[in-house]
Amino acid sequence: MSKAVLLINLGTPAEPTARGLREFYRCFFADRFVFDINPVGLWLLRNLIVMPLRAPRTARDYAGIWMDQGSPLQVYSERVGQGVQERFDAAGSDVAVRVGMAYGRPFIADALAELEREGRDEILVFPLYPQYARATTESAFHSVRRAAASWRQAPKLRFIDDFFAEPAFIRAWAGVIRAKLAEANADHLVFSYHGLPEAAVRKTDKQGCCDFGACCDEIGEANRNCYRAQCLATSRAIAAALGREAEACSVAFQSRFGPARWIKPYLDAHLLELLAQGKKRIAVATPSFVTDCLETLHEIGREYREQFIEAGGGDLILLPNLNDDAGWIAALHELSAARFVD
């Protein structure tokens, strides 16, 4: 069989303008894995709030992080795809590597169509979401299956559900953090993860064990797909690789919106708690992402930093993401190549 790796990321607006954001939001709000709510309420949210009000404001935020080559998420995803391709080529492996985006170009369907034209019939579907979540991982799987259903001959699909516990992933993050943490001279390290509504996490709880507390302290059969438990496990593994004591690190969740209950602790409140404990220089790592994006560079690097300093903090230092780090590219190649060995 002719093999390929499809690296999937969330996607990004094509341009940092209100028009670019509206095009992005049209795709985003059409995803029922993310917005499993009443269609009328969804229409009202999208057309009366997000499109006219949020799109222009968010466009300005994107303009503030835009690179010369484009959106950071797009730029780094393309570099990583090329880097993994080069590693397969150097190893003499006939494996094609493509990048597909959930809500931007190249769309997942476009990347798969290219692989079909090339005759690639065994595809490793590799969402670049370290921790499993229905809104991201399952949404990506759904898009792949729907696109592959139109092929003349169905490809063999292999799926990676998560990779939060993979030693190669942990090594890559520990290497990036270690390189920058010393110069940050921080009192404390926070691992910040993208938040999810509690209701979304409960949908993966098939055995009714979730109480968003001590049940997340270990990964077992009952909570294997619990996003919060996987985030905590990621943090423990990276901290161990760094040789940091448990009290020198903590975990929080960012990016919540709306009135629903989201998983805790919330990053903004957690930072104030740390400040009250006398921790005035805090470093933040973001291991639910693999590339810097609006939620890291703007939300943490600017908004949360300003709030922390205004509250009396000394500094909030955003550590770089994996981006196109050589160790991360090597880890992706290692993880991909291993999946093709039966």
Question: Which features characterize this protein?
Answer:
342 residues, 4-stranded parallel beta sheet, alpha/beta, 11 helices, Rossmann fold, 2 domains, 8 strands, 47% helix, single chain
Helix vs. strand class:
alpha/beta
Mean pLDDT: 94
CATH class of the largest domain: Alpha Beta
Regarding quaternary structure, how should these chains be classified? single chain
Please tally the β strands and state the result: 8
Please state the second-level CATH architecture of the largest domain. Answer: 3-Layer(aba) Sandwich
Output the helix-strand order: EHHHEHEHEHEHHEHEHEH
Our count of helices gives 11
* CATH topology label of the largest domain: Rossmann fold
Radius of gyration over C-alpha positions, nearest whole angstrom: 20 Å
Content of β-strand: 5-15%
Main sheet: strands, sense, barrel: 4 strands, parallel
- Helical coverage, percent range: 40-55%
Describe the structure.
- The chain is α/β, with parallel strands linked by helices.
- Helix content is 47%, strand content 13%.
- The chain has 11 helices and 8 strands.
- The strands form 2 sheets. Strands 2-1-3-4 form a 4-stranded parallel beta sheet, sandwiched between helices. Strands 6-5-7-8 form a 4-stranded parallel beta sheet, sandwiched between helices.
- The two termini are 13 Å apart.
- 41% of the residues are buried.
- The mean pLDDT is 94.
